[in-house]
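Possible regression after last week's pipeline update?

I re-ran a chain I had predicted before the update to compare outputs. Posting the input and the new output here so someone can diff against the archived version. Not blocking, just want to make sure nothing changed silently.
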Amino acid sequence: MKTKDSFLTADLEHIIQSDSISWNHMKDSTVFITGITGLIGSLLCRTFLAANDARNLHMQIFGLVRSREKAENIFGELLKREDFSIGAGDITDAVSVDGEVDYIFHCASVTASKTMISKPVETLMTAVGGTRNMLELARKKEAKAFVYVSSMEVYGTFTDLDHDVTEEDLGYIDPLAVRSNYPESKRLCENMCIAYFTEYGVPVRMARLAQTFGAGILPGENRVFAQFARSVIKGEDIVLHTRGLSEGNYCYTSDTIRGLLTIALAGKDGEAYNVCNPDTHTTIADMAQMVCSDIAGDVIKVIFDIPETNTFGYAADTKMKLDSGKLQALGWKPEVSLRESYERLIGSIRETENI
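New output (post-update):
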């Protein structure tokens, strides 16, 4: 499936040709995806449509959105396809779907830190109410797999951990900090998944994503990776509003999508999996410096402008390195380095944004 973004087109082709994904298991299935106007949800939709074209799988893809207009802006002519349909509504309301639903990828979530600060109640209700509704749908439809897209933020912070973070580790989250609504709700939703698995047999699998970026980011994306990439394109210095000491765990978009498909098709019910590339682990400050020197050739530099209060809603500094061995044991392996991730992201932005 061709797109105006040659980097995204190449990524989609790479995913659907992956020998580690059991595509035939999804033949003639119905796939339900929430949050399709977000990065992960939109890429999952594009991947399944591309797989239909290349592998003749006859999947039916259904996406749930809050704004039909936003979906139309993102997908355009793809919404005219017979194998792709969307429904508009609030995920905190009951979800009703005609026919069978075989696979559910629950991606809908608040991802903007500013919203977590300005609308903490809505952040919590979207997570908790939305996840409950999707688990109910999975229970009623007897879905083959329910993949909950969680986050590395569930781990919180560690003070004395002497090894890479596995799925069995758990750090501290301050429940009295308003920004904790995001990691705390992710923890609760994972436990809700386990509750539905234990009581009703819903085949849940949790994907704890590292920060994911690459070709195919959406218009208006303003997370730190997009800011860094646009700084390179514009020739502007990178401005950090923290000291940049937080240790980031990253994964390129196509690696993450392959990880989610691996979890859906080969993962074990009731289990969580880290989706990350351990080789990309670095601090925010070091990543900014790498972008300035290795990508921009030292034409730009890093500037620190730290406000007295956390007006930007940034998460607390974390010092942890995620271990993806559990997912790799299923046959998945990360392939794209941090530098290549930025090179492909910047190439994608140059082709799709008027900068």
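Follow-up from reviewer: compared with the archived run. DSSP finds eleven helices and 13 strands in the chain. Marking as no regression found.
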